[in-house]
Amino acid sequence: MPLSQLNDNAELDLSQSKILVVDDQPINIQTIYNILSEEYVVLAATSGEEAIEVLKDNLPDLILLDVFLPNKARNELCQCVKQRLELGNIPIIFVISMHQPEEEDACWQGGGIDFITKPISPLTLKNRVKSHLTLKFQTDMLQKLVFIDGLTGVFNRRYFDIHLNKQENKSIRCRNDTAILMIDIDYFKLFNDHYSHIKGDEALKTVAELIRSALLRPLDFVCRYGGEEFVVVLPDTNIFGALKVAERIRKSIYNKKIVHVCSPHHFVTVSIGASTFLESIDEKHHPVEEADRYLYEAKKAGRNQVYC
Ligand code: GH3
Ligand code: MG
Ligand code: MG
Ligand code: MG
User: Which positions fall inside the GGDEF domain (predicted)?
Assistant: First the structure.
């Protein structure tokens, strides 16, 4: 289940878990469906491509994958599973034929966490699925505690530090630019002073949600950088793309019209500084420093604007 749907005191309720069954034989899908559909939501696909289509609209908690799927289709599917994720992993259990050691090897090589043999024993299937769902659920909870900001529900600084580093290496290696946006709420101290800290917290949550919904690509992410500052990471994005996203964020926050009588803009607004890895790589400054510097320029120029 997606991290955003887990609440802090989520109990171990697996009944809403989604299981994606990928098999080219409808009869095999039917067998698995009959065993699992009473307890879980079962989705089905009869090819790798169809499974990738299903993944566009659904985030399954576990995948049961027929080992006979061709290598290429299997790799593409596994790649897609990894990219589709915010955090954590979707466990893949392979379905293999009994007494076929090479199929066991294919399972581990394919990134499987476990396998189950055909003909399928209903009790074994149910128990395997339950164990792996439980493990996944607990891992998700732990990841959430470690990497999600408690107030706003977006990623925290720890997540940013780890992932920025990875993204930086990837960007430089592939000469594929990554953009950084530093976002700071304008006159927020005055907002707290005038409306109370509780209203301030509510506004912070709304701003975080608006930023998150302005990010349209699956690999884009937002983190709470500190108090009322957010940082957005946009992989495969140059400075022009970054400016488009930044403007979209700035406008959506202004258009929300959260009244702020102490601001000359009358509503809660943000200032944004943008930079990219490849543009700042030859200079002495890190793109985060650059974005921060442009953020400062945006503030100086009157706030509620984007600078790069
Ligand atoms: P500027 O336009 O220059 O950014 O002014 P500002 O008042 O936003 O900036 P400053 O850095 O002076 O103040 C940031 C304020 O953000 C301080 C604090 O009142 C508020 N803030 C930081 N974290 C939180 C939080 O978690 N909740 C609430 N309600 N307010 C916070
Ligand atoms: Mg098959
Ligand atoms: Mg600030
Ligand atoms: Mg501020």
Answer: 176-308
* 41-78 core/surface letters (b: 16 or more CB in 10 A; e: else): ebbbbbebeebbebbeeebbbbbbbbbbbeeebbebbb
Q: Cis check for the bond before 264: say yes or no (omega within 30 of 0).
A: no
CA dist 246 to 165, 231, 233, 280, Å?
Answer: 22, 11, 11, 18
CA nearest ligand 1 atom 18, residue:
189
The answer, yes or no, to whether ipTM is higher than 0.90 is yes
- pTM confidence score: 0.77
N residues, the chain: 308
Averaged pLDDT in 10-residue chunks for the chain of 308 residues: 50 86 94 96 93 86 88 78 66 88 85 91 97 93 92 96 85 85 98 98 98 92 97 95 98 98 98 89 78 97 97
C-alpha 107/C-alpha 115 separation (Å) is 7
Pocket of ligand 1 contains residue 201 by CB under 6 Å: yes
Question: What residues have their beta carbon closer than 5 A to ion ligand 4?
Answer: 184-185, 188
Question: From the CA of 187, which ligand is nearest?
Answer: 1
Catalytic residue among 202, 228, 247, 297: 228
